[in-house]
Write a structure and sequence with these properties.
Length: 265
């Protein structure tokens, strides 16, 4: 029989500390966010798994079944499979295949609705916790919730913007060699927060005029998109951008607008 501990004294020390956070105002904000984030993440993984399984079954299905869904979009494939009636198919092999496809399609549809509901709840709770963060262009309910969780779990790492950048794995690390002067992002830090910042940059690259102007200015100077992404992600706050590149040459000891990895002349 499974016995669940009720009181903090029945828990291991590290678990008891988490249990006590329920009495801490910070924990009262973070734990529901964490629960919703974990639930949504597992639902997304299950949804992706269901879609991969649908594709694998269709690839190996009889030709007449595969061709029937070949030219449909992903959404229409799921809708069509979810509404199939295997009981009306006379061939038992085809009926069993369609039954499996219908089961997976309905699972995918239900998970889509679940993910939408969880995202809405995440957005409402994250907005209530920090309206200014969600107001930044490119920060959505999922990325905002993850950044709040990372910040709340590491309050001692919020002493400065540089400290938070190191926590998220976006602090530049010099990897210069000889006449080549460049930096790379840290491979450490909270990878979930790092992924959240990457998604923010990705959205701003396509929809924010300031970020696009910054990108275009660097592309004009010979940078590649691969090099621009880390520099933009290194911004201390999601709404900030590094200073625009300058046409005037600078010495090795100062900031430069040369692309990372480009030899100095």
């Amino acid at each position: 029989m499974l016995v669940l501990p009720v009181h903090g004294r029945d828990l291991p020390d590290e678990v008891a500390d988490r249990h006590d956070q329920r009495r801490d105002p910070r924990g009262l904000v973070l734990e529901p966010l964490r629960a919703l984030t974990v639930s949504r993440r597992s639902a997304v993984k299950a949804q992706h798994a269901a879609w991969r399984q649908i594709g694998a079954i269709l690839i190996n299905a009889p030709t007449h079944i595969r061709d029937h869904y070949r030219d449909l979009s992903d959404t229409k494939v799921v809708a069509a499979l979810a509404s199939t009636r295997p009981s009306q198919v006379t061939d038992q092999d085809d009926a069993d295949t369609l039954h499996a496809l219908r089961s997976l399609a309905r699972r995918h549809r239900d998970l889509t609705e679940e993910i939408t509901t969880l995202k809405e709840r995440l957005g409402a709770r994250a907005t209530a916790a920090n309206p200014a963060l969600l107001a930044i262009k490119g920060v959505g309910p999922v990325t905002g919730a993850q950044l709040l969780i990372t910040a709340g779990d590491n309050p001692d790492r919020l002493r400065s913007s540089a400290s938070f950048a190191a926590l998220c794995g976006t602090a530049p690390i010099p990897v210069s060699s000889g006449r080549t002067d460049r930096h790379r992002l840290s491979r450490g830090g909270d990878r979930a927060a790092n992924a959240a910042l990457y998604h923010v940059v990705n959205v701003r690259m396509s929809s924010d005029s300031r970020t696009r102007a910054y990108r275009d200015a660097h592309l004009a100077k010979g940078w590649t998109k691969k090099a621009i992404y880390p520099v933009t992600q290194t911004s201390r706050r999601p709404g900030d951008l590094p200073s625009p590149p300058s046409a005037a040459p600078r010495s090795r000891t100062t900031a430069t607008s040369d692309p990372p990895g480009k030899p100095r002349t």
